[in-house]
Every structure is written in C-alpha cells, then in structure tokens.
Fold:
Amino acid sequence: MQSSPANPSAYLDNRLQKPAGIRLGVGVTSPSPELVQMFAHAGFDFIFIDMEHGPISIETAYRMVTTTIGTGAEPWIRVTHNDAAQIKLALDAGAKNIVVPMINSREDAEAAVSYAKYPPRGTRGWGPFRTQYQWHTNMLDYAHRANAETGVIALIEHPNAVRDIDAILDVDGLSGAIAAPFDMSVNMGFSDGPNHPEVREAIELVMRKIKAKGMRLLSFAITPQQADSAMNLGVDDLLLGFDPMYIQASVQLFMENVARLRGTGQQVASVQR
Structure:
C-alpha cells in the first residue's frame, strides 16, 4: 500500500499507483468543483460527475468540468435519464463522455446517440457558446470535432437490457457500455447486492459481450476485491467508487492507524515499566 506522506502538501507529488494498462476513474456525487479538482490533480484518468444520484445542477456540472482543464482527467457526466435536453446541456457543459442510464433496448440506445450527435448524424441542437472555452478552441472547430470526439456510454442495468445486449451494442455511434451491478441486482429482485449467481452471470455475460465488440471494458470496483476480480476479467477502465465512500473510508483508515500506533506505544511503555 502507498504510504501517506508526512507533509500534507506532498500529496500532489504522491501520484496514484495505477495497474499497468488500466485507466482509473472516480465518481463524484457532491456538487463540488473543488472535489473534482482534487481528484483530477491526484492523477485519475476520468471523473464521473454523477447528476443521476447527486444533487448536481447543470451550472455546477459546468464548473466541475472546468476544474479538470489542465489535468489529464477526462470529464464524464452521467445524466439523470435518456433525455434530449439533459444530454445536450451536459455536452454543452464540456463533457467528454455522456453516460446514459437505463438503456434497455436498441431503440433506447439509438435515441441516446441521436440526442448526443449533431446533424446529420443526430438531432443535437447547435450552440457551443461556452463549450469552446472548455475545449480551448472555437465554436466552429468544436462543432466539427464533437461527433467524433465525444462518447455515448450506455448503462446496462436491467434484465431487458441483458436480453437485448447484442442489438444495443450494435448501434452505430454508441461508444461503450457499462454493466451496473447494483441496479442489475435490484432489477432482478435482490436488494442485498450483486453477489447472487444469476446476477453475476448476467453481469459477466454483458462484460464479455462488450469486450468482444472491441469497446473499452469498464467495471465498477467499490472494494479492492472487486477491482482484482475485474482485472481478472480483462477490464480497461476501473471506476473506483464514489466520493462519500472515500471520505468515510479515509477517516476510518486514519483512526485505525491512530489506534494501531497508540496500541504499539502502550505495549512499549508497559514493557519498559
């Protein structure tokens, strides 16, 4: 495990230890540009700005994207639902990739791609008035590049999507898909998580299909054990949980280390006596 630097100001020089060939991302549900800035400078490859499950407005999402400028982190936005206005606003905020929940059919995927692409490929309205600044270019150049350089990623989180997975992945313009284990488990009737054989079978089937299609394979990894299992399946990208988990876990780890040091010190003191 990477040791914590004694001087907190050294954290910027204490970059993430990344598995070879795997990109790392982190989810942010808090409406905090400052938190995104910290994660981006820590060395994450992408920041998953979560408008679906976080109280994040489009104004805040824009500022969150802005804080990634000058870092190696790509800004991704998960919109609340498969909606033309939401997807347009998220892309206009400067997102590199749009993650769209509840893509359950080919028709759902086709709609998401259409909403995200400028004509003639899709129906996205033109107006990158501020996007040009996020991308350090001008409006015409952004519009020329956007269809090729922005991605639409489908969340596969329902048994209906598993049944239609081949048709979904075959949609022209869809750049990727993610199997969502917790939503999948709930939608399969399990409220206690994805550790049920039929849920694992569905998730792994989707992951194999994504890999076979030649798309980048991304997996959620809430625990180190999940990260290890995902790497054994050949993932390209790991999403290492969400900000509330890390804040709580960091405090717990800090206090565990304090308790360990206190215990060691007390043992030494007792021996000396």
Observations:
- The chain has a mean pLDDT of 92.
- The longest strand covers residues 23-28.
- The CA atoms of residues 76 and 162 lie 24 Å apart.
